[in-house]
Amino acid sequence: MDKRIFIHDVVARDGLQIEPQWVPTERKIELIDRLSATGVAKIEATSFVSPKAVPNLRDAEAVMAGIRRNPAVTYVALVPNARGAERALAADVDEMVLVVSVSETHNRANVRRSVAESFAGFAEVFDVARGSGKAITGALATSFGCPFEGVIPERQVMDGVARYIDQGVAGVTLADTTGMANPRQVEALVRRVRERWPELEIALHFHNTRGMGLANVLAGLAAGVVRYEGCLGGLGGCPFAPGATGNICTEDLVHMLHSMGYATGVDLDLLLATSRRLGEIVGHDLPGQVVKAGKTTDLHPAPPEMASH
Ligand code: COA
Ligand code: ZN
Q1: How many domains is the chain partitioned into structurally?
Q2: Does residue 204 sit within a domain?
Q3: What is the CATH number of the domain that holds 237?
Q4: Ligand 1: which of 11, 47, 48, 49 to mutate, most ligand atoms within 8 Å of CB?
Q5: Is residue 137 within a helix (H) or strand (E), and if so which, with residue range?
Q6: Nearest to residue 50, comparing CAs of 27, 71, 73, 81?
Q7: Is the pLDDT confidence value at 1 over 60?
Q8: pLDDT per residue over 95-127, tens digit each?
Q9: Which residues have C-beta within 8 Å of that of residue 6, sequence separation ≥ 6?
Q10: For the CA of 80, the nearest atom of ligand 1
Q11: Which residues have CB under 6 Å of ligand 1?
């Protein structure tokens, strides 16, 4: 198995946006700098949204100005509108990610717009970004189910992908915002998208809300996807979705992939150390499992009674 898998960590955005305690700017910078050394391909560093909507990320400019950029890493920020795009460009992000929900109800809860209004606003983002050379990718939230509307018809997801492609995105992320996806659904939907747009760069964003997160990654792999988003420590969740909990845990994801023989380019030990540091920074227990159990290759000495006979 020689397929390279690309790991995108979103803890600094998806993780920290929902934290109950304010994480000081210098700690955010420290976290991103540590992540930058682990070998992850992309880091979603912050979002340029309304500070009233997401007060935790009101220091987006200072975070982007403070981090040490590793040229091998793409630094991404979420932008909701043209205003966010102007801020992101001024902060010299490498890439912007747009987000719209395929569910009307969740989109209104999240960004106070209809889906059509969101796409109309993205046209303004493309206008702002034109000539900057910055890539724009599009995320489709609630692609596998909405906490308000339930299962989303596949046609709606395909429409969302088509609209993004028409606008000129460099890639599309299918996001399971509240952990409703199941592996069979993931494989079927992703295969459908890949059949229709074989050249499209697809990333998958899963939450482990119902324990199906890594199983969904396997389904994504079976459908041929090589880009996965995770949150260090398994932190995360959408503040505008009831009952939202953590993303799939980046280090558990990398551990699973390495155990299976996939290459990610990530130094798992460094990632685990960074996750421990994250625990200190946020000051509470994290859902990640490998950091507690150790890697499968971390063997223990045999019990003494067996050694002495
Ligand atoms: N950056 C900073 N401030 C912004 C902004 C941006 N990108 N976009 C809007 N604002 C400010 C406006 O200046 C205005 O401020 P004021 O009340 O002091 O005048 C306020 O936010 C409202 O602006 P408006 O254009 O009326 O937007 P809105 O109230 O309809 O909110 C969003 C729309 C998208 C800006 C807002 O809902 C938002 O930022 N949501 C965050 C979504 C998110 O991050 N979700 C989690 C990740 S999926
Ligand atoms: Zn998420």
Answers
A1: 1
A2: yes
A3: 3.20.20.70
A4: 49
A5: strand 135-141
A6: 81
A7: no
A8: 999 999 999 999 999 999 999 999 999 999 999
A9: 41, 42, 203, 226, 227, 228, 264
A10: 34
A11: 17, 47-54, 80-81, 83-84, 87, 99, 110-112, 141, 238, 240
How many angstroms from the chain centroid is the CA of residue 196?
24
Range of the domain at 19: 6-78+169-306
CA–centroid distance, 134 to ligand 1, in Å, is: 22
Q: Which residues pair with 74 in a beta bridge?
A: 42
pLDDT tens digits for 128-170?
999 999 999 999 999 999 999 999 999 999 999 999 999 999 9
What does the pLDDT look like over 271-309, one tens digit per residue?
A: 999 999 999 999 999 999 999 999 999 999 998 887 665
Catalytic residues, by residue number, are 238
Q: Which of 11, 13, 46, 50 to mutate to test the pocket of ligand 1 (most atoms within 8 A of CB)?
A: 50
